[in-house]
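Subject: Sanity check before I submit

Could someone independently write out the structure tokens for this chain? I want to compare against mine line by line before I put it in a report. The sequence has 299 residues.
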Amino acid sequence: MLATAVAVVVGLCLQVPNAAADVPSRPGEVGVQALPLRLNVMSWNICGASHNACDDLGDAAQKVDRIVQVTKERNVHVILLQEACELSHSKALPAKLTAAGLGNWAVYHSRARNYNTGEYLACTNEPAAANNYAGPAVLMKKFPRNSIKPEPAVLPDVPADPYSVSEAACLRDEGNGLFACSAHFANEGFDAENGDPTDTREAQAARYAEVAAEKRAEGYTTFIGGDLNISKSYMLQPLESGNIEADALGRWTSGLVKLDYIYADASQWERDSLAGVYSPEGLSDHQMLVGFFSWFGEG
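---
Independent answer below. Compare away.
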């Protein structure tokens, strides 16, 4: 950090007006405009892709409106979605968020594949449309000096399946040193049903943790999460290293178990307050999880 620079806190942003333009603007580093010193992240499996599973849980417009409502009420900066439709949900959201006075947003939607054929999974819970594919999505608010690019992360799937490729939807903001990902892990018992003795969720958790660690080593601050389909604590151990989970109480998010998680970079962020677990209002079989984090500097 430049010895002559003076950091002035204005609202919730760290500003150094005379800093060089090429210096990263992440909290704790000199920059023209830093990320907010309080950063809030939502994760929600919206149950929006499958007609068989989600037909009675509202339509796309209702789900999008609920996301916008909670984003506005809780000042959310990063949104992680699972079981979303590319056109009906993911790509419809930025304009809705902007229209609600919530600024401009970037989005990346990762297309899920059929494990047996390798083909992209079309959404069946919305009217048929070309390229309306199911999958996880990540939305990131465009902060000053943003330079946001998609960077999907490949996670392991059933080893015996030739099409075993699963992507986490990720965005990196090169201008502000921010990296965020949304993932949807395999269901419990999926491997056994497909003739494999291993549990893919363990490998997925380990690789997901590596993705975040690799980005931190490159100088990014990280937020990763989603519907990890894990309720057993030992499977989460790789993710507990170097990260802090949003909900200290481990409250249920689907039925009588916790399956949804938000992990923040523990070297930069701490829980600002107790995470919010919000009702889906009949629009999903998962609760909405919102994590509230405060920046405290590098550990």
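---
OP: Matches mine. For the report I'm noting this point. The longest helix spans residues 200-217.
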